[in-house]
Design a protein that fits this description.
This protein is of the alpha/beta class and 431 residues long. The chain is built from 11 helices and 16 strands. The strands form 2 sheets. An 8-stranded mixed sheet has the order 3-2-1-4-13-14-15-16, covered by helices on one side. Strands 5-6-7-8-9-10-11-12 form an 8-stranded parallel sheet. A hairpin with a 2-residue loop joins strand 14 and strand 15. Helix 9 crosses helix 10 and helix 10 packs across helix 11. The longest helix is centred in the last third of the chain and has 18 residues. It is globular.
């Protein structure tokens, strides 16, 4: 966790002559992720404007995916009323186990560094009346109503919690399986080496199939054991077939040294495409030639990155990295936890913040902020993009607006949220 400091490719038309129910008609529920998702039936979303196109079309969905041609005669109808259709967003980095979302206000205490924040995390964990699972579910459900289709959830693993956070987030994921795809990271916020007992918990989480990824945190500046931490994390990933997602906050040569260590181990263990580095505050500090060289290595090994757009100085240079083919996602980070009173798990708001801190003005720059929150996160989580093409997953939102840039600036209500072709939220509430 971080200390506080589109163009339109195509649309699908079908069943324009069908009459039907008013906005929000639904069919059988769908499930998230290939092993849980069970989309079924046919739905036609009438009178919508993909990516803010001037001309409205009808989108035909069969078994959770967009399709071409006429809709089946039995298709259900959802009237979009001329709303814009945009791909649902992906939260590539969030900590739902820490949140106090939906609970009483907590007053934060002064803190000096990660260790102090960790102590306050433990206090919140021990004093909250609502369980971790209920708080995580409340936040994750809220994210769905704001148009999030998927998230990578980091759950603290430490002797103070055992695997409670992992299990609680998994419980919330299962409750929202029809509406949200979730990857879980076993995240050693208290350190891998500096906190005895953590490595054993990480091993158990990976061995028992409880998580999708193993995390790490600042191997030099916080754990003070770069090789030991990275060797352990990468060995678990290699041994148990999970991915890696490491928090890296260092802004100087310590950060670049760790990044080179990650590159070396990714190459040595043939973990191409299975490694992510989060925050990576050292990258914006590099000169152009150094950045180009590092980006080339990251792209060669398909190492993904995530940013939470915390400030103009620390946000990743997304456009430059994309030129090299590096996958970059956008995330919420912590939401109303002991680290910060801010955050709302609304990825449209996060795309807005990305534009704000990078001081963008042009329409294409604003649209790129939405793309970072939608396509960027999907790329990081290895999910198919939503371009409204035949075969794409029918994960999208319907909202009032003129165009994508205006939507990023004004952040209108997500009137309808669709997951696997089924309406899962309407007007800010789960269906």
């Amino acid at each position: 966790m971080t200390p506080p400091p589109l163009s339109r490719r195509g649309v699908l038309a079908g069943a324009a002559s069908l009459g039907g129910a008013a906005l929000g008609a639904t069919a059988a529920p769908a499930q998230a992720a290939e092993d849980r998702r069970r989309p079924g039936g046919a739905v036609v979303f009438r009178d919508v404007r993909p990516f803010g196109a001037r001309e409205s079309v009808d989108l035909t969905v069969v078994d959770g995916k967009f399709t071409e041609g006429p809709a089946p005669a039995h298709a259900k109808i959802v009237d979009g009323g001329g709303r814009i259709a945009l791909p649902s967003l992906v939260d590539a980095h969030i900590h739902p186990d820490k949140t106090t979302w939906g609970s009483d206000w907590i007053s934060r205490k002064p803190a000096d560094g990660i260790a102090d924040y960790c102590e306050q995390d433990v206090e919140v964990f021990r004093t909250q009346r609502r369980s971790v699972g209920e708080r995580a579910y409340g936040l994750m459900a809220h994210a769905v109503t704001r148009g999030t289709r998927a998230m990578r959830a980091h759950a603290d693993v430490a002797p103070a919690y055992g695997l409670d956070g992992v299990e609680a987030v998994a419980e919330a994921r299962d409750r929202l399986a029809d509406a949200l795809d979730v990857q879980i990271v076993a995240f050693p916020q208290h350190g891998v080496v500096r906190t005895p007992g953590t490595s054993e918990l990480l091993r158990a989480a990976a061995r028992d199939g409880l998580v999708d990824m193993i995390g790490g945190i600042d191997p030099i500046s916080f754990d003070q054991a770069m090789d030991e931490q990275l060797d352990l994390v990468f060995d678990l990933a290699d041994r148990y077939g999970v991915g890696v997602d490491i928090h890296l906050h260092d802004r100087d040569e310590k950060g670049t040294k760790v990044l080179r260590g990650i590159v070396e181990r990714t190459r040595a263990l043939s973990l191409r495409g299975k490694v992510t580095v989060s925050h990576v505050f050292c990258l914006p500090m590099l000169k152009d030639a150094e950045l180009d060289a590092m980006a080339g290595d990251l792209a060669d090994l398909d190492i993904a990155l995530t940013t939470v757009a915390p400030s103009a100085e620390l946000v990743l240079p997304i456009a430059k990295l994309k030129e090299h083919g590096v996958r970059v996602g956008l995330g919420s980070d912590g939401v109303r936890d002991s680290w910060s009173p801010f955050g709302n798990a609304d990825m449209l708001h996060r795309a807005h913040l990305l534009g704000w801190v990078t001081d963008v003005r042009l329409d294409e720059e604003l649209a790129a902020c939405y793309s970072a929150g939608a396509h960027g996160g999907a790329d990081v989580m290895a999910l198919p993009r939503v371009e409204f093409e035949a075969g794409d997953p029918a994960d999208f939102v319907l909202l009032r607006g003129e165009c994508v840039p205006q939507v990023v600036v004004d952040m209108p209500q997500r009137d309808v949220v669709v997951h696997a072709g089924q309406v899962v939220a309407r007007n800010g509430d789960l269906v």
